[in-house]
Design brief:
By secondary structure, this protein is of the alpha/beta class. The chain has 29 helices and 24 strands.
Length: 735
């Protein structure tokens, strides 16, 4: 060490002998180095962008596939309404209340008195509301929710009751003026993400007479704080009725809530009053306004429009009748002649007529670009505008591979053939009753998405609503003397997006929607000049310290896991299709054949060739070892009594089964009877056209009755049909 120090000291006084020209590289070398660095960086960013885009496509495709599954499940709920009484002898009970809420004969005064008599224990430390609400009450709610407190059920019921009374007085379309405020703030989907709402209030200020807000639907589902969000929004609505405005979204729908978490959240947080809260919310959601118009120039709706959207007609609909946009009003079927054929002809016809106009099986999914290219060529001659959400009672047994057209497409024989479970019902096509026309208008407004090509076509990618082109937007805006359409409904990576020559703005306020770091949230402000100003944000606790590559990797990993679960749930279909190409049974096929098979089975419209390195291996000859796409995922706790085919069916419909079991489990004990399980599964398999042997169901029901008391712990049962990622298992073992 001393030696090194002495050398340093000796060199201090000596002049440098290094050539000065070596220190200063030539300008040519500098430019070459800069070009190489720039080229490398551009390739690096381009590769990240490719990964980011296909990650986004995976998330969005799986999300929309889930919405199509929900349309199919909603038809099963309708079927259960007609059949569940036979299972327990006590009537549909909660199912009927969740899906067909009858008119409550109790007067508002009696109901209010009932809520006031609910006793709040002294041990309750949360906020105590008094009506009419004051600023102190809203501040108390915000503070309590920040501290993870829960509002007592009594105050939730009172708040919903007051909100219901207020909304009954509101019109379908709200007209606002920007002249009474400096700016109006419009927020998009929140989806149960309370942190996003609190961040908006922190950045933009609380609602007040000087700071009006419009929240454009989808307050609930997916996130874990949906009930807190609607409590806050409804409280500010009552406090500032002229300066706080709420539009209805497609998730303000009790059938959607069954699948996407809000129903479960309410029942878990309010075990005593949860059922009353959910029933009251059905009415509150159906009473939310459908649209808001600013200065007669800016139209704000949740989803979009169609070529049949009529704002004058929309202003006159009885919106409270549409409890769920997923279900066609009953009266529209009651006013139609119905002719039933035999069960045998039904089965033959439903298989032959795979393009039934009202099939609610999983529709063939296409890319928006592919769909709109096809529709744009024919939109000038005919438009199909209307919602592609069908009457759930018109369920059929069509396989998921076929793509049924919209129910508004004209029938070539002027008759609508609706395949029921046990018959084919021929419906004449007279002028639709008003209830159906109202339903169609609301569905289009809540479910539609814009497209780049002209025309209007069924939104088969989601399974509901329409794709509307720039010409449809321009025509409606011109007709009503407007200049701008603001909508939400679609997650955007930057939180907002402009299309249709700037005439349509999509605003989405739930950041990290798919995964931590997947997208920003945003809100838009409009002043008297009606020039939009966008504000972006991202609630983040962990991603701030991550690099761009790390953030992309986190989201990509989550998306690929979801995609692998899809592959695993369709393993038997995929293997059968793979083996059709693999005649010699080598376990290998070409990349092109692999991509074609996966797309034909899953119908997700993903770039499978780009994703191939992330999902399967290649052999030395460049062929795909197709069984390797199942290697990184396995069953959670496989049950030996369950056949592989039945197990795969359970994996595929695990979410649907969980929803159904939670409805049957009225006391939320986690237990259902063997008979309920057996009959429900038979109905479910019959409804979906899933060929499962009754004896296999009976054997499985008996085998999972572990203590032989006639009841099934279906939480343990569902846990057995959960897929496990082997990478996660290795990480847990190493940890």
């Amino acid at each position: 060490m001393g030696c090194g120090t002495s050398v340093a000291i000796e060199n201090q006084g000596r002049p440098s002998e290094v050539d000065v020209s070596a220190r200063q590289p030539s300008p040519t070398l500098t430019i070459k180095a800069a070009v190489l660095i720039q080229r490398w960086y551009r390739r690096y960013v381009a590769r990240l962008e490719v990964r980011r885009r296909y990650t986004w496509n995976i998330f969005q495709s799986i999300e929309y596939a889930g919405e199509q599954d929900q349309l199919q499940l909603s038809s099963f709920f309708s079927f259960m309404l007609d059949n569940f009484t036979q299972l327990n002898g006590n009537g549909p009970d909660l199912i009927s209340h969740l899906l067909d809420s009858a008119v409550d004969p109790v007067t508002e005064e009696v109901r209010q008195c009932k809520y006031e008599q609910i006793v709040v224990p002294d041990s309750y430390s949360g906020p105590r509301l008094s009506f009419p609400l004051s600023v102190t009450d809203t501040n108390a709610l915000l503070s309590a929710f920040k501290e993870q407190q829960t509002l007592h059920g009594k105050y939730v019921l009172q708040l919903l009751h007051e909100t219901q009374k207020f909304l009954k007085q509101m019109p379908n379309v709200i007209y606002l003026s920007s002249s009474y405020a400096k700016e109006i703030t419009i927020c998009g989907d929140l989806h149960g993400r309370l942190d996003d709402l609190l961040l908006i209030f922190y950045k933009n200020g609380l609602p007040s007479a000087e700071n009006p807000y419009i929240f454009n639907g989808d307050f609930v589902d997916r996130g874990k704080k949906s009930i807190e969000i609607i409590i806050i929004l409804f409280a500010f609505l009552l406090l500032y009725p002229d300066h706080m405005h709420l539009n209805r979204g497609n998730h303000e729908d009790h059938i959607m809530n069954l699948r996407y978490g809000f129903t479960k959240e309410v029942m878990q947080k309010y075990k005593t009053h949860g059922r009353e809260i959910l029933q009251l919310l059905q009415d509150v959601f159906s009473l939310l306004p459908i649209a808001t118009i600013i200065d007669n120039k800016v139209l704000i709706v949740h989803g979009g429009i169609s070529d049949k959207t009529d704002l004058y007609f929309l202003s006159s609909v009885e919106r409270h009748r549409v409890k769920s946009a997923l279900r066609l009003p009953k009266r529209s079927l009651d006013h139609t002649d119905v002719c039933c054929s035999s069960r045998s002809s039904s089965r033959q016809s439903s298989r032959a007529r795979v393009d039934s106009p009202c099939s609610t099986g999983r529709m063939k999914r296409r890319k928006k670009s592919r769909l709109t290219k096809q529709s744009s060529s024919s939109s000038s001659s005919s438009s199909s505008s209307a919602s592609s959400v069908c009457s759930p009672r018109a369920s059929c047994r069509a396989t998921p591979r076929h793509a049924p057209p919209s129910p508004r497409l004209p029938s070539p024989v002027n008759m609508l053939q609706v395949p029921f479970l046990d018959s084919i019902v021929s419906l004449a096509l007279p002028e639709p009753p008003r209830e159906e026309l109202e339903w169609r208008q609301i569905v289009d407004v809540l479910w539609s998405d814009p497209k780049n090509q002209n025309g209007c076509s069924p939104n088969s990618f989601r399974g509901g609503g329409c794709y509307f082109g720039p010409d449809v937007t321009q025509r409606l805006l011109k007709k009503h003397g407007m200049c701008l359409l603001i909508r939400s409904h679609e997650c955007k990576q930057e939180g907002y997006e402009l299309c249709h020559n700037g005439q349509v703005i999509t605003i989405f306020s739930a950041s990290n929607y798919y995964e931590e770091g997947s997208n920003r949230g945003a809100y838009v402000k409009l002043g008297p000049e009606l020039i939009p100003r966008f504000f972006q944000y991202q609630v983040s606790r962990s991603t701030r310290k991550l690099t761009l590559q790390q953030r992309v990797s986190v989201a990509e990993s989550s998306a690929l896991k979801a995609l692998q679960e899809k592959l695993f749930a369709h393993r038997s279909e995929l293997m059968a299709a793979f083996q059709q190409y693999d005649i010699s049974n080598t376990g290998r096929i070409s990349t092109n054949e692999w991509a074609q098979v996966v797309e034909s089975v899953l119908r997700l419209d993903l770039p499978w060739r780009t994703l191939r390195p992330r999902l399967v291996r290649l052999d030395s000859d460049g062929n795909v070892e197709y069984e390797s796409c199942f290697e990184n995922i396995s069953a959670g706790q496989p049950m030996p009594q369950v056949t592989p085919n039945l197990a795969e069916t359970m994996y595929r419909y695990r979410t649907d089964l969980e929803i159904i079991f939670n409805i049957i489990d009225k006391d939320h004990s986690g237990q259902i009877s063997i008979e309920e399980f057996r009959q429900t599964w038979k109905l479910f398999s019959s409804h979906l056209g899933v060929d499962v042997d009754d004896q296999a169901i009976d054997d499985m029901a008996r085998s999972i009755d572990f203590n032989k008391d006639g009841s099934i712990d279906f939480n343990e049962f569902l846990e057995a049909f959960r897929v496990v990622h082997k990478v996660d298992m290795k990480e847990q073992q190493q940890g």
